[in-house]
Specification:
Chain A: It is found in: Cell membrane. The complex is a heterodimer of chains A (318) and B (263). Chain A is an alpha/beta fold and 318 residues long. Chain A is built from eleven helices and 14 strands. Chain A is elongated and about 80 Å long. Classes of the chains: A alpha/beta (318), B mainly alpha (263).
Chain lengths: 318, 263
C-alpha cells in the first residue's frame, strides 16, 4: 500500500481578496515527517487548519489517512491528532484532568483512560505536576501536556503547528526527541516550522511555502543542492598578504574593504588542501579561514526572496 | 457515525468539564448571585416602605411587598446567572482547547450542550439559594399546591434554558469575555422594566406595552399566579411562547456560529 497519509491536490484558500494558499500539491508518505517551512504569514497555519478539518478549503482534492476531507471529515478527525500553535490545553483544570478529558472524548473505558493517562504523563515527565492546574505550567510543560493530550487517542497522523516556537533550547530538544519517537512508532508527522534547523533535524521531506505556493520541495540535502554558495572564506589583516593571496587564487570573489576572499569550494578535504597549498607556495598566511557549506538558510532566503532579509551567512566549520 | 449513546457521552463529558470549572472557580457564579440577593434586600428593606405604599391603593405592608417582589427576583436570578454562561462560552472559544475539540471525532454539539446544561443547573441552584434567602426574610406562598410548585419549577427551568441559549449565542458572537459580559447585560436589566418591582399599571402609558410583553413580565406574572394565586390569564402561554422562541433562536444562532470556520 502506498496511499499517502496526507495528499493534497490544488489546495486553494483565500480570505476575501487575499489569497493565502494558491494551488498546493502535497503527498506525505505514511510514517514520515513532512515539514512545511515558511516565514510568518506564509500560510502554514492555514494549511494545517484545513488539513485538520478546522477550516474548509475553497478548492482542492484533499485526503488525510485515506479519507476525503470534504466528504467525511469525522473519519479524518478520528485518525488525526493536532497540536496547534497556541496551546490547546484547558488551563483551569489540572494536567491529569486534561488527560482524562481526552480519554473520555475518545470513549476509552475508565480503566483504560487511567492507564493511558498515567503512561503518557510518565513519558512526558509530567507526573509531578499532574495535580496542578495547567495554567500554572511553564511553556515547555504546557507544550508537553499538549502533545500528550494529542496522543491519547493513538492518532496515525499528527499535525504539529510550530511546536517549538517560544520554547527554550532545552525544551526544544526535548520536543525534537518526542517527535523522533513518534515517527519510530509509525506515526506520520506534518510539521510546520519557521526554524530551518528544526526541519533539517527532523523532516524526511521539506516543502518551502512562499506566496501561497510551494517554492521548492525535497529532502534537506536536495534543497541545499538547489543553491550555490559553498565556499572558503579567507581573511587577512595585512593588505599586502591579501593582494598576493588574491593573485595566487584566481577566480575568487574579492572584498577589498574587509580584506577577505571567497574561494568557491565544495568543502572537501582535497579542495581545502589545494587552497592551502596555493597559499603556501605564494608564501602567504590567512589570519582566519572558514568553510561555508550551503545550509537551509541559504535555500530559504534564495527561494523566498531573501534580499529584504539581511543575509547573514552562518560559518559552519572552522 | 456518532450514534446517540456516544453523543450523550460526549455531552456529559463536556458537562462534567463545565461543572468542574464552576466548582473550582466559584467566584464568577457567586458574584452573579450577589446581584439578585442585593436587589431583593434593597427593595424590601430600603425601598420597601415606599414601594408598598404605592401598591394596592396604599396600606400594603412589607410582607405583601416581599411576596410581590420575589417572583421577579427569582427570574432575575436566572438572567444574572446566564451572564456567566455568555462569559464562559466567550472565554472558551478564544482558547485553543475548543479548536482541539473541533478536530476530534466527537459529537459536534457537545461543547455547547455541555455549557447549556451546566448553566441551567447553575441557574436552578442559584434560584434555590435566592429562594431560600427570600423564605428566610419572610416570603411564603399562598395555598400553592404541589402541582403548582412543580409548574413553577418547570417554568423557571424552561426560562433558564431559553435565556441560556441566548446567552450562549451572545458568548459565541463576542470576541472576548468583556464583550460577552456587556452584550449579556440586558438579561439582568430587562427585569427592571418589567412587573418585577412595580405593577405595570403604575408605569407611563406609552411604556406599558413594552413592559407588559417583554419576556420577563409574562413569566413573572405566571410565577406569581402559581405561587400566590393571582390571575395568570394568557400570561402562561405568552411566557411559554417566549421561552420556546428564545430557546430556538439562541440554539440556531449558537449552532451557526459554532459551525463557522475558525479565523
Amino acid at each position: 500500500m502506498t496511499t499517502p497519509a496526507i495528499a493534497a491536490r490544488g489546495l486553494r484558500k483565500s480570505y476575501g481578496d487575499k489569497t493565502v494558499l494558491d494551488g498546493i500539491d502535497l503527498a506525505v508518505p505514511a510514517g514520515t515527517v513532512f515539514s512545511l517551512l515558511g516565514p510568518n504569514g506564509a500560510g502554514k497555519t492555514t494549511a494545517v487548519k484545513i488539513l485538520s478539518t478546522l477550516v474548509t478549503a475553497d478548492a482542492g482534492e484533499l485526503h488525510v489517512a485515506g479519507h476525503d476531507l470534504a466528504a467525511d471529515p469525522q473519519a479524518v478527525r478520528a485518525a488525526i491528532g493536532v497540536t496547534g500553535q497556541f496551546s490547546a490545553v484547558d488551563g483551569l483544570i489540572t494536567g491529569e484532568e486534561n488527560m482524562l478529558l481526552m480519554a473520555d472524548l475518545h470513549h476509552l473505558s475508565r480503566r483504560e483512560g487511567r492507564r493511558v493517562t498515567g503512561e503518557l504523563l510518565e513519558r512526558f515527565d509530567l507526573v509531578e505536576a499532574s495535580k496542578k492546574p495547567a495554567a500554572t505550567y511553564s511553556g515547555g510543560m504546557r507544550r508537553r501536556l499538549d502533545i500528550a493530550m494529542t496522543l491519547v487517542g493513538g492518532p496515525r497522523v499528527i499535525f504539529l503547528d510550530e511546536p517549538t516556537t517560544g520554547l527554550d533550547p532545552r525544551s526544544r530538544h526535548t520536543m525534537w526527541q518526542i517527535i523522533r519517537e513518534l515517527v519510530t512508532g509509525g506515526v506520520t508527522v506534518f510539521l510546520t516550522t519557521q526554524y530551518l534547523e528544526e526541519a533539517d533535524q527532523l523532516a524526511d521531506r521539506i516543502a518551502v511555502l512562499h506566496g501561497g505556493r510551494i517554492a521548492a520541495e525535497g529532502s534537506a540535502g536536495e534543497l541545499k543542492r538547489l543553491v550555490p554558495g559553498g565556499h572558503v572564506r579567507l581573511r587577512f589583516t595585512d593588505p599586502a598578504a591579501y593582494r598576493s593571496a588574491a593573485l595566487a587564487l584566481p577566480g575568487t570573489t574579492r572584498d577589498d574593504e574587509a580584506l577577505s576572499l571567497q574561494v568557491p569550494s565544495d568543502g572537501s578535504q582535497r579542495d581545502l588542501r589545494s587552497v592551502l597549498d596555493r597559499l603556501d607556495s605564494a608564501g602567504v598566511e590567512a589570519d582566519e579561514l572558514t568553510v561555508h557549506t550551503p545550509d537551509l538558510d541559504d535555500v530559504f532566503f534564495a527561494l523566498t526572496g531573501g534580499a529584504a532579509i539581511p543575509h547573514q551567512p552562518k560559518e559552519n566549520a572552522r | 457515525m456518532s450514534s446517540l449513546p456516544l453523543a450523550v457521552r460526549d455531552c456529559s463529558t463536556m458537562l462534567r468539564r463545565n461543572l468542574l470549572h464552576a466548582r473550582r472557580y466559584p467566584s464568577l457564579t457567586l458574584n452573579l448571585l450577589l446581584t439578585p440577593v442585593m436587589l431583593l434586600l434593597l427593595f424590601v428593606y430600603i425601598f420597601g416602605d415606599v414601594m408598598s405604599a404605592g401598591m394596592g391603593g396604599g396600606g400594603a405592608d412589607r410582607s405583601e411587598y416581599i411576596a410581590y417582589v420575589v417572583p421577579g427576583i427569582l427570574l432575575m436570578t436566572i438572567g444574572s446567572t446566564v451572564i456567566g454562561a455568555a462569559v464562559s462560552v466567550a472565554t472558551d472559544m478564544s482558547e485553543g482547547i475548543v479548536a482541539r475539540f473541533r478536530t476530534m471525532a466527537i459529537h459536534r454539539g457537545s461543547v455547547l450542550i455541555g455549557h447549556v446544561v451546566g448553566s441551567v443547573l447553575q441557574s436552578v441552584a442559584s434560584v434555590v439559594l435566592v429562594g431560600a434567602v427570600a423564605v428566610a426574610i419572610g416570603f411564603r406562598s399562598k395555598d400553592a399546591t404541589a402541582l403548582e410548585w412543580l409548574a413553577a419549577f418547570g417554568l423557571l427551568a424552561l426560562f433558564a434554558l431559553a435565556l441560556t441559549w441566548i446567552a450562549v449565542g451572545m458568548g459565541m458572537a463576542s470576541p472576548n469575555a468583556e464583550a460577552a459580559s456587556n452584550s449579556a447585560m440586558p438579561l439582568i436589566l430587562l427585569p427592571l422594566i418589567s412587573s418585577a418591582f412595580t405593577p405595570i399599571a403604575a408605569m407611563p402609558g406609552w411604556f406599558q406595552p413594552i413592559a407588559r410583553y417583554q419576556p420577563f413580565t409574562p413569566a413573572i406574572e405566571t410565577l406569581r399566579g402559581l405561587l400566590l394565586g393571582t390571575e395568570i390569564g394568557n400570561n402562561g402561554w405568552i411566557a411559554i411562547a417566549w421561552c420556546v422562541g428564545l430557546a430556538v433562536l439562541g440554539y440556531r444562532w449558537s449552532a451557526s456560529k459554532f459551525g463557522q470556520d475558525t479565523k
